[in-house]
Specification:
Layout lengths: L1 H4 L17 E2 L10 H17 L14 H13 L6 E3 L3 H12 L8 E5 L4 H13 L7 E4 L9 H6 L5 E7 L11 H10 L3 E5 L11 H4 L3 E4 L14 E4 L44 H17 L1 H22 L6 E2 L11 E4 L3 H10 L2 E2 L1 E3 L3 E4 L8 H17 L14
Parallel strand pairs: 1-11, 3-4, 3-5, 5-6, 6-7
Antiparallel strand pairs: 2-8, 7-8, 9-10, 10-13, 12-13
Length: 413
């Protein structure tokens, strides 16, 4: 295919473990294993074998500094200074740390804004902190979608009043792929003395960010989707340098200053950068694959990845328009550059269509109640993958092979 011949990133496809009998379009849920990630994991296992406890300071990737090493690569992807980013914890644990540290309610200013289309885990965490502080759900302000797919920034801004202490929003909505105007929202929040942060799970590794330039207060994310860090990979945390020195709400000894940590004092000497917001001992074997996985992003750069991503999804949307028009699909995501890196197709038979796609060797992602997510990933998906997927989907609809499956999701959708 001519588009693949012109693709400057096509050479990276061979870096990943791809099955010949599958087209993998679920990289926005779990990225594929790369040979580099496998190599870096094996190297860390070898250092455990060779050095034992001295692996903390010896070998090619000393464990004691691994969170900071990975944080430096992550910082490039989110447009931050290296001191502002750390690889740590999981998405939800990092959000709990942010809430414990920066949600400081007082009389008349004790509410938190989120949105009704946010990923459930974020909402669970926010509500739990309100309960722990003795508040009811009246302090939880949920911005409603006007159409069930998108959130208007105007509606978020209209809710920013003197009672709001904190705002937590997704950078990219996990269903429709809408990219929120982060810079605009930060400016409006700061005009009203409100702290604001973002969940970057569906944007990091897929779109460029400028968190420091935009003056975002904090952000958190997982590293197993577009960054291919492996199932349960350690997450990421960004804390704007203007907040460095703020005592962590959830303190643990890996938040200590590196030179003081092993003094074993009961008065903590808190690190003076984002590493202060770590807690317990890092999960080294869950970080190790990121050393290799992120090296490709260091080479390619996020702008090249974004450019190909837009080309892939443009091509997919064109094919959907021309090939699937008779089959009552609804294209939920936007067609301009305010979309992320995946396509959301709506259909009343979505759950069973996803099962039919899997039977035909295409791996999609079902999202309640009627969404089929298709995520062609720049580093390992091709334009031919996209063409074959839409033609397979057309065949499924023409032959109605989806009807042999129940229209209910699996345990894991």
């Amino acid at each position: 295919m001519e588009k693949d011949q012109q693709d400057q990133l096509a050479k990276y496809r061979k870096e990943f473990y791809l099955r010949d009998d599958l087209i993998y379009l679920d990289g926005n849920s779990l990225g594929l294993l790369s040979k580099r990630a496998e190599k870096s994991l094996n190297e860390v296992i070898q250092s455990w074998k060779e050095y034992a406890i001295d692996g903390w300071t010896e070998g090619g990737a000393p464990w004691y500094y691994m969170a900071e090493t990975i944080g430096e690569s992550l910082a490039k992807l989110v447009g931050a200074k290296k001191a502002e980013v750390i690889a740590s914890n999981s998405t939800t644990v990092n959000l709990h740390q942010i809430l414990a540290t920066f949600f400081q309610p007082k009389e008349g200013k004790n509410k938190i804004i989120a949105d009704e289309l946010n990923f459930p885990s974020d909402i669970y965490a926010i509500k739990s902190h309100l309960r722990m502080r003795g508040y009811s759900e009246e302090q939880f302000i949920s911005i409603q979608s006007r159409d069930g797919q998108f959130i208007r920034e105007e509606d978020i801004i209209a809710a920013m009043n003197e009672e709001i202490a904190l705002i937590i929003l997704p950078s990219v909505l996990y269903r429709s792929g809408q990219i929120l105007q982060m810079k605009r929202l930060v400016e409006e929040a700061h005009k009203r003395d409100i702290l604001i942060g973002f969940d970057l799970c569906h944007s990091i590794g897929a779109i460029p960010h400028s968190l420091t330039e935009w003056n975002v207060d904090f952000a958190f994310w997982c590293n197993y989707k577009h960054l291919n860090g492996g199932p349960g990979a350690v997450g990421g945390l960004y804390i704007n340098e203007c907040h460095h020195g703020t005592a962590p709400g959830l303190a643990g000894w890996f938040g200590s200053h590196k030179q003081k940590q092993f003094d074993m004092e009961h008065e903590m000497t808190v690190a003076d950068d984002a590493s202060a917001y770590q807690m317990g001992t890092p999960q080294i074997l869950s970080m190790a694959p990121l050393l290799g996985a992120l090296s490709m992003f260091d080479e390619v750069g996020i702008n090249a990845i974004r450019q190909k991503s837009l080309q892939l999804t443009d091509y997919m949307m064109d094919l959907i328009h021309y090939e699937l028009k008779p089959f009552a699909f609804q294209l939920y995501n936007r067609t301009d550059e305010s979309r992320g890196a995946h396509i959301l197709l709506g259909h009343k038979e979505a759950a069973r269509i996803c099962k039919a796609l899997k039977e035909e060797g295409v791996i999609p992602d079902f999202r309640m109640p009627d969404g089929i997510r298709l995520a062609p990933v720049s580093l390992y998906n091709s334009f031919e993958d996209v063409w074959r997927t839409i033609n397979i989907l057309k065949k499924i609809m023409e032959e109605e092979t989806y009807k042999k499956f129940e229209n209910i999701r699996g345990v894991i959708a």
